[in-house]
Amino acid sequence: MKFTKMQGIGNDYVYVDGFSEQVTDPARLAQRVSDRHFGIGGDGLILILPSEHADVRMQMFNADGSEGEMCGNGIRCVAKYAYDHGLARKNPMHIETGRGVLALDLDLAADKVERVTVDMMSPILDLPEIPVDPIEVTPTGRPHEYSFTSRGGKDDLTGVFVSTGNPHVVVFVEDVQAVPLEQIGPRVEHAPVFPRRINAHWVQVHSRSEVTMRTWERGSGITLACGTGACAVAVACILTGRTDRKILAHLPGGDLSLEWRESDNSVYMTGPAAEVFSGEWHDA
Question: Longest C-alpha distance within the chain, in Å?
């Protein structure tokens, strides 16, 4: 099976061109190829497939084999692969995801995609739709902020819940580097308040236009970047009055520009996409 390794600000996935390759068990394959010691290494597996509703379809699997609805950094790479390899020479491009069909504007250099702006659509704030169990949270009195406990009741936290195609919780802190992510991340991901688990982000606000964030992704653990999470962070910052509607988010793997527009209520994310290498996977 031929594959291509791609990354968007360090959020790396193994990509398979479903126009020419067939994957019979993507959940198992995701686990094997994602292993950074015995596989190719990555945060998961993304299939680029034909679509009846868009230019191409994206199907993504986390490193543990669980299927995710969307990946913000991943969809930029899908657009780059589809355009650069001639699967869809459209600009703007439309890609079908578990979130719906998204529109992407491509920034080109020498007829290759370098940066992509994604219309991530309107955020979902209704707790059951995210989904968050409303019985397990308590309003703090600040708009859209709730208190909740992690798995086993080990951590008392205050967060903002947002879905941008995937479920997210955003926790604001004074020093994001001081968060013990390896310990607290899995406890939050598997908290009983989240029936489908959660992507958790800790955020330090520097100004009305700049934040730094760190992420624990459900099914993958600590990652260098999370595109849908960065969009959720922008929404949470705006909902709680911490920033303006345009922000720059610093993630461990790089920066994303984010804007939640009042005109159409959509969140727009802009960032790079890059190919790393290609090869063949021989499944033993």
Answer: 56
